[in-house]
């Protein structure tokens, strides 16, 4: 087994024991990126020179002290929405094609402090809007299981990089499902944390709970390790202040036979393709044989669609109104659609939306007085071609806008509960299937325990365990992932330290 295939947990231990150097691992990750990225276009800007310098420092520190930080010497991919000091951060937007921040976002700063080595940026849709990772700066990210299909979004670059073993850990973010959806479509783990656990000092609306930052990994244990390094308050994020930051690592084992599980195929409100329903039912049938209780929820969360419309539009106005007014041509169609939607929203609409969201939150919280875990699909269908902007029709039902096909995850966003996408075998089309696991608010550690126990229980079952793409085929693939670029790239190529050139 190549070292890049080892889990972040094992890599961490080998570096600490002196059996593996951080530089050796970093060089192996860089070689993997150079070999496989042309097939999926997961990686955009890179920082290989500084990563190697940091890896040498990490190796020197191993010999000097036993008190090493949690992620010591581990290469890290950072979503291109998140500011990285001295490293190109474009958000996939033409206006920001030359943007090089002077400081890290709080999450990146915290992960560097925990010993992680920022190695590369990962691709995202234009300004993170949408569940299909494609933009006019870097192009599209293809799915590692079939590069002609989409990798999900908006953390699609991170998910594809993890699935192909380019990096052991990557950051993500989630508003309507941006951590969970690409994780499901690429066969990795993504955790949407409870609001406030992972501080965000650059969120425009400091009190809004719908957008969070979070960890992504190839296993639940890797994700929990990164989550532990991510949590903590920040004075510029009011949601993070006063939150109880219970440890989530190391994961304590539990017996899944005691679990009380509820599930819903569609929350009574979401269009779901028959193939996705069959895949979900097969997983539920398997899990039901192993747990104490497994029963359906008779919910109807139909009001959640309009509720999410209003609250999402509010956040987009806060972030993009000025740019929309002064430079609308620099915004992609998805971003403009959200800002324009806000023009017809009244104060009464906002009050109704917040009342509805509170009701949805209380519906979930009431259920957790009876159950330990709620299960649902992550996505309503198998991945579609990345050249198709979004899923326009699901099971014969036209979707109202570019993001309604994400409703299985955005309804959970409204509840604000922690939610994890667990890779769970393949669907009938041979593509990864993700199981959405939802836990009680601010019980992220408990959710990770349950997810780890279920992952371990089914690790020997090919129909339930994490699938892996055929990287030998990817090395031969050269899909046209740049065909949507409508502006000439500022910097040549997608790889190399040229991204640090003065612009």
Structure at a glance:
The protein is of the alpha+beta class. It has one domain (3-495): Alpha-Beta Complex (Amidase signature (AS) enzymes), CATH 3.90.1300.10.
Structure report:
The chain has 503 residues and is an alpha+beta fold. The protein has one domain: Amidase signature (AS) enzymes (Alpha-Beta Complex), CATH 3.90.1300. The strands form four sheets. Strands 1-3-2-8-10-9-16-17-13-11-12 form an eleven-stranded mixed beta sheet, with helices on both faces. Strands 4-5 form a two-stranded antiparallel ribbon. The two termini are 41 Å apart.
Oligomer: single chain
Top-tier CATH class: Alpha Beta
Q: What is the overall silhouette?
A: globular
Structural class: alpha+beta
How many strand units? 17
Estimate the helix proportion, in percent. 25-40%
Compute the average pLDDT: 94
Number of domains: 1
List segments where confidence is low: pLDDT < 50 over at least 5 consecutive residues.
Answer: 486-503
Per DSSP, what share of the residues sits in E-state strands of 2 or more residues? 5-15%
> CATH topology, which one?
Amidase signature (AS) enzymes
What is the annotated CATH architecture?
Alpha-Beta Complex
Nearest-angstrom radius of gyration?
A: 21 Å
N- to C-terminal distance? 41 Å
Put simply, the count of helices is 14
Q: Can you say what the CATH homologous superfamily is?
A: Amidase signature (AS) domain
Characterize the main sheet: 11 strands, mixed
Spatial order of strands in the largest sheet: 1-3-2-8-10-9-16-17-13-11-12
């Amino acid at each position: 087994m190549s070292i890049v295939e080892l889990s972040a947990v094992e890599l961490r231990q080998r570096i600490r024991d002196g059996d593996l150097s951080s530089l050796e691992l970093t060089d192996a990750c860089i070689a993997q990126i150079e070999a496989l990225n042309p097939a999926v276009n997961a990686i955009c800007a890179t920082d290989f020179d500084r990563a190697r310098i940091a890896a040498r420092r990490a190796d020197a520190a191993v010999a000097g002290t036993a008190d090493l930080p949690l992620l010591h010497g581990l290469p890290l991919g950072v979503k291109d929405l998140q500011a990285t000091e001295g490293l190109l951060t474009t958000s996939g937007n033409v206006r920001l094609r030359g943007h090089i921040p002077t400081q890290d976002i709080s999450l990146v700063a915290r992960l560097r402090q925990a010993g992680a080595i920022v190695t590369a940026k990962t691709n995202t849709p234009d300004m993170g809007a949408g569940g299909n990772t494609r933009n006019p700066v870097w192009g599209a990210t293809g799915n590692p299981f079939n590069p002609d299909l989409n990798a999900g979004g908006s953390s699609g670059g991170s998910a594809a990089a993890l699935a192909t073993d380019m990096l052991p850990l990557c950051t993500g973010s989630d508003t309507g499902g941006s951590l969970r959806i690409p994780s499901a479509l690429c066969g990795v783990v993504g955790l949407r944390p409870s609001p406030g656990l992972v501080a965000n000092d650059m969120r425009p609306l400091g009190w809004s709970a719908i957008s969070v930052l979070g960890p992504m990994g190839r296993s639940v244990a890797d994700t929990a390790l990164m989550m532990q390094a991510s949590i903590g308050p920040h004075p510029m994020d009011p949601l993070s202040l006063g939150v109880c930051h219970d440890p989530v690592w190391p994961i304590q084992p539990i017996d899944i036979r005691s679990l009380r599980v509820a599930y819903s195929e569609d929350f009574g409100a979401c269009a779901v393709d028959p193939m996705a329903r069959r895949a979900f039912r097969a997983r539920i049938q398997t899990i039901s044989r192993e747990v104490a209780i497994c029963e359906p929820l008779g919910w109807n969360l139909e009001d959640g669609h309009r509720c999410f419309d209003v609250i999402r539009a509010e956040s987009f106005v806060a972030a993009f109104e000025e740019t929309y007014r002064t430079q609308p041509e620099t915004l992609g169609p998805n971003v403009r659609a959200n800002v324009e939607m806000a023009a017809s929203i009244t104060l009464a609409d906002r009050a109704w939306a917040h009342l509805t969201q509170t009701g949805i939150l209380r519906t979930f919280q009431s259920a957790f007085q009876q159950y330990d875990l709620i299960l649902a699909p992550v996505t309503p269908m198998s991945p579609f071609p990345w050249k198709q902007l979004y899923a326009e029709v699901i099971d014969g039902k036209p979707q109202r806008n570019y993001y309604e096909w994400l409703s299985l995850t955005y309804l959970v966003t409204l509840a604000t509960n922690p939610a994890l996408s667990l890779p769970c075998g393949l669907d009938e089309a041979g593509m990864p299937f993700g199981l959405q696991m939802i836990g009680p608010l601010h019980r992220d550690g408990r959710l990770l325990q349950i997810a780890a126990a279920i992952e371990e229980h089914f690790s020997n079952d090919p129909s339930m365990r994490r699938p892996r793409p055929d990287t030998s085929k990817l090395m031969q693939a050269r899909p046209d992932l740049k065909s949507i670029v409508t502006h000439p790239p500022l910097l040549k190529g997608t790889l190399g330290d040229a991204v640090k050139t003065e612009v």
